[in-house]
Amino acid sequence: MGLMLFGNRPGKGAGSRRMRVEAIEMQARRFGYFPRTFRWRGRRYDVSAVERCWTTSTRQWGGRAQRHYFRVRCAEGCFELFQDIAHNTWHVARFEQQG
Question: Which DSSP helix (H) or strand (E) runs through 20?
């Protein structure tokens, strides 16, 4: 049983699981930017690797960045996390369980 990766499009790809966006507590960041440790549903997760990061923006906000996204790997699986820049809040958008 290997690690399942995210598809290129939401809801596509093997094992891709859409879920309701949930708030997380970002506890530590590497270099003041990349997720290092976070708490979700009462459990602590240590990030072993950041596999991808990207930023989104819209014309509605004058092209300013709205969210920083991070695809991260932990012992438990892969997460797609994002930071809402306007509110400085962190959320989990997807989770792919190891196994």
Answer: strand 18-30
